[in-house]
Amino acid sequence: MSSDWTQCAITPAVNHEGFASLGVAVYRASTIPFENAQAYATRRERGSEGYSYGLYGTPTTRTLERKITALEQGRRTLLAPSGQGAITAVMLATLHAGDQVLLPDTVYPPVRDFADRDLVRLGVQVDYYDPLDPADLVRRMGARPRLVWVESPGSTTMEVQDLPRIAALAHERGAVVGCDNTWATPLNFKPLAHGADIVVEGLTKYFCGHSDVMMGSITVADNALGDALRAFLGRLGVGVSADDAALVLRGLETMALRLAYNARVAASLIDAVRAQPEVARVLYPTLADSPGHAVFRRDFQGASGVFSVVFTPQAAPHVAAALDALRIFVIGASWGGTRSLVAPMPVRAHRTVRAWEGDDMVLRISVGIEDEADLAKDLQGFFQALRDRMARHAGA
Ligand SMILES: *Cc1c(COP(=O)(O)O)cnc(C)c1O
């Protein structure tokens, strides 16, 4: 019998026979014990699917990876500590000095910032293209196009891109195609089936679904690319915790239900929002006048619950203050959780190819899972506050 001190430190193996659970076990690990020195010495031979160190995966993270791989109809998924981290990892792993990366003008602003500061610093040629015009992409391709990035629909202004066409043009010139699918999720769009080589999801949003985990995924259609990305993430020292992966696995169980509700309520709120005289335009791919609507109808299964509102020039300056009237909607970044959110987003500074013609501030709205009538009433209160402010301003 070992001493108490040793018994405190050592965990006994208990019988698992006869036990099963519908939940996914949280396997926390840095060290993974080996049965003998030979097994330890040859641990690299276990391959990228084996277990050798906590950073390189646990059964919990592999379970999440496998579920995402199935949804994306891909070969392999890697997890990253955020959606942004997944995107930058793809770019760092694929781009060499002298290569060109082509980004849509509507790319997620932190990705634009990363490209302009860090990729440029590393000698990568960074160019932006019109997300709605594949011919513009071709015109901007130089001698060494290596990666064409797609984000569909685009951040805030919701341009749906013609991924099959863009992928064909990029592949003709030897470039790899990556697609940020955070808005749609694989339930509404499958980028790998539409020509992309790599798809990234911000799991922080709809997958997690509860606004309390940061995570991203990278899914590839090709095993060799998957192995290269896993090795690169290992060298960077980037991985995710089993606890966080388990929370995303829990959120994923209800994602289809949540998305269906989010989209249905978004559609009904949009009807009411568009009827307001203070609204110039609603940007949401299901609407016939939303950019890329025909491509959306051709390629997507459905919509999620995020849309953007462009106000008239008279109303726009009063929107920020009128948001104080909201009682249920929360002001904040991100989306895809249980709570409905609004975020005033400046657009003009993030466009370099095609100037943004609406008011600089666009209000992004993410519908949560609250009662539809309560949300409609909350928005009515906001529009009343907006009209009151406009009237006071006109009278002053
Ligand atoms: C939020 C978001 C990301 C980044 O996800 P994080 O997990 O918040 O880093 C990437 N792309 C799009 C389109 C997003 O909306």
From TrEMBL:
Domain of life (superkingdom): Bacteria
Which Pfam families does its entry note?
Cys_Met_Meta_PP
Which coenzymes or cofactors are required?
pyridoxal 5'-phosphate
Name of this protein: Cystathionine beta-lyase
Q: Which PROSITE patterns match?
A: CYS_MET_METAB_PP (PS00868)
State the similarity comment: Belongs to the trans-sulfuration enzymes family.
Q: Which UniProt keywords apply?
A: Lyase, Pyridoxal phosphate
| Keyword Transmembrane tagged | no
Which InterPro entries does the entry mention?
A: Cys/Met-Metab_PyrdxlP-dep_enz, Cys_b_lyase_bac, Cys_met_metab_PP, PyrdxlP-dep_Trfase, PyrdxlP-dep_Trfase_major, PyrdxlP-dep_Trfase_small
Task: Give the pathway listed in the UniProt entry for this protein.
Answer: Amino-acid biosynthesis; L-methionine biosynthesis via de novo pathway; L-homocysteine from L-cystathionine: step 1/1
Write down the chemical reaction(s) this protein catalyses.
an S-substituted L-cysteine + H2O = a thiol + pyruvate + NH4(+); L,L-cystathionine + H2O = L-homocysteine + pyruvate + NH4(+)
SUPFAM superfamilies annotated for this entry?
Answer: PLP-dependent transferases
